[in-house]
Design a protein that fits this description.
This protein has 411 residues and is of the alpha+beta class. The chain has three domains: 12-140, Aminopeptidase (3-Layer(aba) Sandwich), CATH 3.40.630.30; 148-298, Aminopeptidase, CATH 3.40.630.30; 306-399, Nonspecific Lipid-transfer Protein, Chain A (2-Layer Sandwich), CATH 3.30.1050.10. It is 26% helix and 31% strand. The protein is built from twelve helices and 17 strands. The protein has a twelve-stranded mixed sheet, with helices on both faces. Strands 15-14-13-16-17 form a five-stranded mixed sheet. The protein starts with 19 loop residues before the first strand and ends in a 12-residue tail after the last helix. The protein binds coenzyme A. Coenzyme A binds next to β4, α3 and α4.
Length: 411
């Protein structure tokens, strides 16, 4: 049974009409904010950051027969680091379906369209932060990592001491290129960190500095920046004071230690530090982190949009040469489906159509391997990989060995 709520209100009947899918325009901005606000509990009026994101990126919407927006998703044109190379990525955000039409296939339709359009603009992978995994799994994304904030008692850093050769000072505008290149040096060696450039990341020095209460740089006299910490003083209203540190990036042990020592000296006013850190960060090897706690964990998922393009775009283990034949299964991005030969040599990869595949790989499995998040043994036990032999598994295991996937920026 269906019921009509009002002339232009979405009803269950709308799910059966031919939904119009199109890119959103400036005229749709108010409706888009409202649809997202109702789902995510945002402010009444759009924030400047949201407006600028929606103006510079491609948003997709589904409209019902009354031309009312009933579903939307944003395709962010971003780049992420894999194997030392920048990978053109579709960062998917703001996925919402109007409550009355959830479960009627609108997200599937919308995201299938978004993925095809993202491929047309050159994106080879897609990433997103998920509030629920199953709808994205059904469409080929898989959880590969999580953005974590941890807390640490500030006093835990009290005994580190400051290395004599390192100086600290507040960053000034002239430091901004050095801060960005410090971040990039570490991002380049990561699996998944976002490239902080382009319209999504302001690079104007005054805007970078204004983004935090403070940015402290670590350097040697006469030398370049060796590390920095961006920090924000949290309010004391919600309990004991804390200092948030979204970026703590040291290129050397000395720089990281000096920055940790500086943070340890906040103990009298901020007994707790909140740090945004990837797993196995050097900070966790230098600081006394026994009493650290994960206070927030945002899982993120990845999908391969264009398997051939994605394999060619990233760097692969330099000392691995070989090949394996694969059959990929993909009903959402059908251009990926079929038989392929994965060839790796000298750090370069290619996926050629053809081969005598007896290894079957689901797209979620390919995402996990690509992101070095899981190896073939786990994929087999999850039903994402079948066929083949020990040799194929050993090759895929070696191909998928990289730093643990991580992202510092949520979207
Ligand atoms: C999550 C959301 C976008 C899904 O949209 P939707 O239109 O209901 O999803 P669809 O009907 O297209 O379903 C797609 C697939 O996911 C499954 N699915 C949908 N919602 C699901 C849920 N909450 N839990 C488990 N599976 C779900 C469907 O069974 C379907 O599988 P199938 O196509 O293989 O049969 C929608 O429920 C929503 O707007 N939720 C509130 C906002 C939100 O959480 N957004 C996600 C932010 S990351």
């Amino acid at each position: 049974m269906t019921s009509t709520v009002g002339g232009s209100d979405p009803t269950l009947d709308d799910a059966r009409v031919q939904h119009g899918i199109r890119p959103l325009t400036h005229e749709d901005l108010a409706a888009a904010w409202e649809l997202g606000r109702a789902a995510f509990g945002s402010d009444q009026t759009p924030t400047p950051a949201w407006i600028s994101e929606w103006r510079t990126q491609r948003a997709w919407g589904i409209f019902n027969e009354d031309d009312r927006l009933v579903a939307q998703a944003l395709d962010r044109e971003q780049q992420q680091w894999f194997g030392g190379r920048l990978i053109p990525t579709s960062g998917v955000a703001g996925v919402v379906v109007t409550p009355e039409l959830r479960g009627t296939g609108l997200a599937r339709k919308l995201l299938t369209t978004l993925l095809a359009a993202a491929r047309d603009r050159g994106a080879v992978i897609s990433t997103l932060f998920n509030t629920v995994a199953t709808p994205y799994r059904r469409l080929g994304w898989e959880e590969v990592g999580a953005l974590k904030w941890i807390t640490l008692p500030t006093l835990a850093l009290a005994s580190l001491g400051r290395p004599a050769q390192i100086r600290l000072r507040p960053a000034v505008e002239a430091d901004v290129p050095g801060l960005l290149s410090t971040y990039r040096l570490v991002a380049q060696a990561s699996t998944g960190w976002i490239e902080r450039s382009g319209p999504l990341f302001p690079s104007e020095p005054e805007k970078v500095l204004a983004g935090h209460d403070g940015i402290t740089v670590a350097f040697r006299p006469g030398g370049a920046i060796e590390g920095y910490a961006a920090w924000d003083r949290g309010s004391d209203r919600d309990g004991a004071g804390y200092l948030s540190v979204p970026d703590l990036i040291g290129l050397t042990e000395s720089a990281t230690t000096a920055l940790l020592d500086m943070l340890g000296r906040w103990a009298s006013v901020t007994p707790t530090l909140r740090l945004r850190l990837p797993d196995r960060d050097p900070v966790l090897l230098l600081a006394e982190a026994t009493n650290s706690r994960v206070v927030s964990r945002q899982p993120w998922m990845m999908r391969i949009i264009d398997a051939c393009g994605a394999v060619a775009a990233r760097g692969w283990p330099l000392h691995l040469s070989g090949r394996v034949d694969l059959t990929l299964e993909d009903d959402v991005c059908p251009w990926n489906a079929g038989r392929f030969r994965l060839v790796l040599a000298n750090g370069v990869g290619r996926l050629e159509p053809g081969g005598d595949a007896d290894v079957k790989l689901a797209m979620r499995g390919l995402a996990l391997l690509y992101a070095s998040a899981s190896g073939p043994a786990v994929l087999r036990r999850a039903g994402l990989l079948s066929g083949g032999d020990e040799g194929a598994d050993a090759f895929l295991q070696a191909a998928s060995t990289g730093p643990a996937p991580a992202i510092l920026d949520s979207f």
